[in-house]
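hey so i finally got around to running the thing on that chain from the lab meeting. sorry it took forever, my laptop kept dying and i had to restart like 3 times. anyway pasting the input first so we r on the same page abt which one it is
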Amino acid sequence: MDLGEIKKKLQEHFTDGLVTVVGSGLSVACGLPSMQELAEELRKQIALIEDDDVKEEWGQIEEKLLSLVTLEEALRDVAVDNPVIPHIVKITGDFVSTREREVFGRVYNGKMRLPFSAVLPFLSFSSDRINVVTTNYDRLIEVAAEINGFGVDTLFPGQYYGRFNPELSRDALWTGKRTRKGNDIKRCFKKHVAICKPHGSLDWFQHNGEPVRCTLPVDGERLMITPGQSKYRMGYEKPFDRHRDEANRAIDNAARFLIIGYGFNDDQLETHLKHEIRKGKPCVM
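ok and heres what got predicted. didnt touch it at all, straight out
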């Protein structure tokens, strides 16, 4: 297959019905921490915690890490009520957000361009939206979308105290265009990225018993799911359940897939994704 044929195939692929799945490989390529770096940060920070129960539970996880298993594998059997889990979430959130700020600083200073910013102009906005499913906590996709002039639907309307409200989040993207004659206004959606984050996000917090979205660097209880048993229990709580359902619905209804930096290591997501790919839906990785 020559270059011309490859380009033609890609053009045919980047059309209506495309769902994009993004994994940590894209974030790491931009400068965010890898799982190995995160494991080292957890070892360093948890060693400073003066709580014998936490240290004992972490010691069992650390033994697995020392046997050269991955962080995901080491956390696989950790129960959701394990006292080390809140510390893992906080350390992970703080570490990733620190590196994320460094990346955004380079972007805003013109020293780098987010790779997803380069991809977006070539994607077809079917019904004024594209669907992106990501297992990442960071906001690289959201920033890339807005840099390109597109809206973002996170299911949380608002930036500083956005309550979880999928319907209002979508309604906020309504806009108006003048008709050709210029006498009437046609109502339509702004072109936007509908992003599903079934594992949570750096800007999701629990406040007064409700999930909220805040883009400010507040010191609150982050809503992020770590690998392990917590993924199966917390994954059925708000807002994770709606994001997972929306992700699965987008995957089931997709005509084709674009996979970026995703290592096929999330069994919840892959129940639908692998099934659809095996059915013969075209997939570019």
